[in-house]
Amino acid sequence: MNIQWFPGHMTRARRQIQEKLKLIDVVIELLDARIPQSSRNPMIDEILKDKPRLVVLNKNDLADPKVTAEWIRYFAETENLDALPIDASTGFGVKEIIPRAKKLLAHKIEAQIRKGMRPRAIRALIVGIPNVGKSTLINHMAGRKIAATGDKPGVTKAQQWIKVGTEMELLDTPGILWPKFEDQQVGLALAATGAIREEILHLDEIAYYSIQYLIANYPEELKERYSLDKLPTDLEDNQAILAVMEAIGRKRGAIVSGGRVDLDKASVIILRELRNGKITRISLETPGAQIAAEPIME
Ligand code: G4P
User: Are 208 and 245 a contacting pair, CB within 8 Å?
Assistant: First the structure.
């Protein structure tokens, strides 16, 4: 799905989520575990206000477990938010969502019990940017395929509740949020993970930053994957970074006539393997640091 966000769309998306907030007890804020910062909506606190919120870090299978642990600590210590790693596609961690939501709502549930009421099912809404895995998670929780495509402009649809066991009811259409497009680092992180379409940024540029990041953070895994003997030590040496991309292209047969390496093809290979976890489990952001510190592409 590729959504073009304009100010009008953002206002509408925000309004639609705020309408739904009235119906629910808890928000499941779905982020990409590889880029929890860049896959986040810049206005999320303002949109959700004090609605109880569980942060869920999806695509945990592709992210670096050490870095994910750092993020969980960051969310707890800095934002007082509980963050849960999951893989919506396999279901890993998904069962934890209900107990975590119950913990967040413990006060409310206890109050219902004190009044002699039977606690009703927790009503939840999943929100997140396009491609973060909202539909996959809804389908997993529902135990069947739901055509959850989010809100389309001009289409009004009755709200449907999906029962998740006896303890939770989930709105069948997620809230679609927008990322912080205007920030180049965010754009790169989203492009490197495949969350936004490549046409927005040049493929070779995204691959260049990715290689630069891998050299800095996952050098052994990079060398191993592409049988490279050594890597450049100077991350600002453009020619040396390009030489790594060329070496990868050459090893993978991305050659044009005359024996030159086809950098576009090499970039496609690098990004495909980065995105599907073939190089290793990679996180592109740690709390406080993003994919590239300084843009140095000429
Ligand atoms: P959205 O509703 O938020 O827009 O996202 P959606 O569920 O459509 O998921 C976007 C892509 O992310 C899908 O891949 C989906 O399979 C993948 N995905 C979702 N959760 C996980 C996860 O936990 N781990 C991994 N590795 N991938 C996940 P796609 O390439 O667009 O489609 P397809 O390959 O499933 O056909």
Answer: yes
Does residue 18 register a pLDDT over 50? yes
Instruction: Answer for the pair 55, 25: CB distance below 8 angstroms, yes or no.
Output: no
Structure tokens given for 82: 């509980």
Res. 295: pLDDT tops 50: no
What is the rounded average pLDDT for all residues in the chain?
91
Closest ligand 1 atom to 277 CA: 26
Between the CA of residue 67 and those of 89, 222, 281, 286, what are the distances in Å? 21, 18, 10, 6
Half-sphere exposure of 31 (CA within 13 A, CB side): 30
Ligand 1 close to Cβ of residue 89 (< 6 A): yes
Please report the beta strands in 47-176, taking only residues with DSSP state E, as ranges in sequence order.
53-58, 83-85, 122-128, 161-164, 168-171, 175-176
Q: Which pLDDT value is given to residue 293? A: 45
pLDDT score at 202: 87
Span from the CA of 255 to the centroid of ligand 1 (angstroms):
31
CA distance 138 to 21: 17
Residue 103 has pLDDT above 50, yes or no: yes
Q: Where are the beta strands (DSSP E) in the chain?
A: 26-32, 53-58, 83-85, 122-128, 161-164, 168-171, 175-176
Q: Is 30 in the pocket of ligand 1 (CB under 6 A)?
A: no
Nearest protein CA to atom 27 of ligand 1, as residue:
59
Say how many Å lie between the CA of residue 279 and the centre of ligand 1.
Answer: 19
The encoded tokens of residue 119 equal: 């606690």
Per-residue model confidence (pLDDT) at position 297? 43
What is the value of pTM for the model shown?
0.93
For the residues 44-59, what does the mean pLDDT come to? 97
Question: Half-sphere exposure of residue 185, counting CA atoms within 13 Å on the CB side?
Answer: 16
Residue 67 has pLDDT above 70, yes or no: yes
